[in-house]
């Protein structure tokens, strides 16, 4: 993977730029086809741009977490994730997933769902919005477990918000502490909901928790079996499955939020697909440039952003929270963690310089 280290930062985004140009051209053509006016064409072009920006802002943390997992994967599996994994992420999550929701919720066939998306976008969007509560409970629970598992780790020795993270690392030896925390939150939030909504929330959250545990078990078993074959084969299929489910949980928010801007499934697919390509480029850049090792608190910022996103997803079952807040919150936290890392690096350099000056005296 280190072969491309000479590549400039912009070079990593070559494919993302190509997909952006093609996607926006497609969006403009779609606008012209559906409305037949320049105004309609410009509107669709603008919506595609906003969706792409929304997806990128929501996905900074996704790229950092991907890079964190990818750096331990074998080059073969890294390549598989960055090719097949991204195809699954773009097409599977941005196109197939919204269709599947409608297929399950409306109890209709996949072809009927596509026809519904094309001919009755309002009805399609209504079904998607009705499915929001269980999706938010499922995705929120999965992401919360991802975030908490990072902090509740007794081997973790680099702390950004030290007073909080040291305590979490200390309590990590208590078995199932993060599961207990999540279940308490599920009970608290479900108490604000009534009847069917409360049941749906609890069941979906438990499915989210079970999915996380199942992915961890499967990942552990697959990676352990590969390890027995060869120590170098660690981080293969298990890590791949984990990253795919993680990407799905991240994109829940973007896909549902996109329906607030447009009810056209094809415009949503273009906008979010463009965004997903930037996530891929960012992931490759972070892995190849060793950015995570260079900026020691960047991962912390990403995992805090995940925890906040999971709580926001829970809150969205009670009140509407604009996606702009979600995106800016995550990007802001990552920005602060990057600034803290730069400050730390400067301080270290200054201390090394002082130590050298003393040695030379």
UniProtKB/TrEMBL annotation:
Transmembrane regions listed in the UniProt entry: 12-32, 38-60, 81-106, 131-152, 172-193, 205-224, 231-250, 256-280, 301-319, 325-342
Keywords attached to this entry: Membrane, Transmembrane, Transmembrane helix
Keyword Transmembrane: yes
Listed name of the protein: DUF475 domain-containing protein
Native species: Rhizobium subbaraonis
């Amino acid at each position: 993977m280190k072969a491309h280290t000479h590549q400039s930062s912009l070079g990593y985004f070559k494919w993302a730029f190509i997909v952006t140009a093609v996607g926006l051209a497609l969006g403009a053509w779609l606008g012209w086809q559906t409305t037949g006016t320049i105004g309609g064409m410009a509107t669709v072009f603008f919506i595609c741009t906003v969706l792409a920006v929304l997806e990128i802002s929501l996905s900074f943390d996704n790229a950092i977490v991907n890079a964190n997992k990818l750096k331990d994967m074998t080059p073969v599996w890294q390549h598989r994730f960055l090719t097949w994994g991204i195809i699954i992420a773009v097409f599977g999550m941005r196109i197939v997933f919204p269709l599947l929701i409608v297929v399950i919720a409306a109890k209709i066939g996949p072809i009927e769902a596509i026809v519904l998306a094309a001919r009755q976008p309002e009805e399609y969007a209504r079904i998607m919005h009705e499915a929001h509560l269980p999706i938010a409970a499922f995705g929120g629970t999965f992401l919360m477990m991802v975030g908490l598992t990072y902090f509740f780790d007794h081997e973790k020795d680099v702390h950004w918000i030290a007073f909080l993270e040291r305590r979490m690392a200390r309590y990590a030896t208590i078995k199932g502490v993060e599961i207990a925390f999540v279940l308490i939150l599920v009970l608290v939030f479900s108490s604000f909901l009534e009847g069917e909504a409360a049941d749906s929330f609890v069941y979906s959250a438990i499915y989210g928790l079970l999915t996380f545990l199942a992915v961890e078990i499967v990942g552990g078993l697959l990676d352990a079996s590969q390890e027995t074959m060869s120590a170098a084969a660690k981080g293969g299929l298990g890590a791949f499955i984990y990253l795919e489910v993680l990407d799905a949980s991240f994109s829940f928010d973007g896909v549902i939020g996109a329906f607030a801007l447009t009810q056209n499934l094809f415009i949503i697919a273009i906008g979010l697909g463009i965004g997903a390509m930037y996530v891929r480029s960012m992931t490759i850049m972070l892995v190849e440039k060793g950015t995570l090792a260079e900026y020691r608190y960047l991962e912390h910022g990403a995992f805090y952003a995940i925890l906040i996103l999971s709580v926001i997803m829970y809150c969205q079952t009670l009140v509407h929270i604009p996606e702009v807040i979600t995106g800016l919150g995550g990007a802001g936290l990552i920005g602060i963690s990057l600034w803290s890392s730069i400050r730390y690096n400067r301080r270290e350099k200054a201390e090394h310089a002082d130590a050298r000056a003393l040695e030379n005296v």
